[in-house]
Amino acid sequence: MRGEPIEAIKVGLETMVAALRQDPYALETVHLSMITFNRYPEQILPLTSLEQVQVPAIAQPAAGGTHLGEALEYVCKKVGEEVKKGDREQKGDWMPLLFILCDGRASDGQLFTQILPEVQRSHFGSIIVCLVGNKLQPENAKLLTDKIVHLDTTDGPTFRKFFAWVTVAVCEGNRSLGSTVGEPPLPPPPPEVNTVI
């Protein structure tokens, strides 16, 4: 994505953070991390408490492929480093929720296939893939999760609706992770966000 969609994502993220801060439970329990990727993954926001999150600038992607496998490998590494595991002496963090915005393409198909078991071992509370654009490859997303949505357009209002839905999903998932078995249910998406079956 380039230009307006990148700015729309930043505005959507800022709206999401502001809305999450209105929820006292989320304010105490939610931490966010942001990783961008094209040819290389880059963590633009390390795992940070909601109270301290400042949405960073998102750089225009360089030319090159979409290395989804490398991005997932990096995400798994960061989860291993930043998410606290519980033991007898300390309570661990909730299982993280992973939201991926992409077109589904994996320029590094072999690494993508190899990293899938590692993604499963990372014990995400939920993995949600949002396919963006009109040149999609949903097959890869279906190997990751059955929770797949699609945005037809990448304008500001559509991204705001998407991030409003993510806000509700985070709040509901955050409350249910400690009390339900299996993945938390997702709220129904708004009309601008299409479910992929």
Task: Characterise this structure.
The protein contains six helices and six strands; from the N terminus they run H-H-E-E-H-E-H-E-H-E-H-E. It is an alpha/beta fold and 197 residues long. The strands form two sheets. The protein has a four-stranded mixed sheet with strand order 3-4-5-6, sandwiched between helices. Strands 1-2 form a two-stranded antiparallel ribbon. It is globular, with a radius of gyration of 16 Å. The protein has one domain (4-81, 92-195): Rossmann fold. It has helices at residues 4-20, 24-29, 68-82, 109-121, 138-144, 156-176, and strands spanning 31-37, 41-49, 97-102, 126-132, 148-151, 193-195. Strand 1 (31-37) and strand 2 form a beta hairpin. Helices cover 40% and strands 18% of the residues.
Averaged pLDDT, please? 83
Q: Please state the CA-atom Rg, rounded to the nearest Å.
A: 16 Å
The first-level CATH class is given as Alpha Beta
Helix content bin: 40-55%
* Class computed from helices, strands and strand pairing: alpha/beta
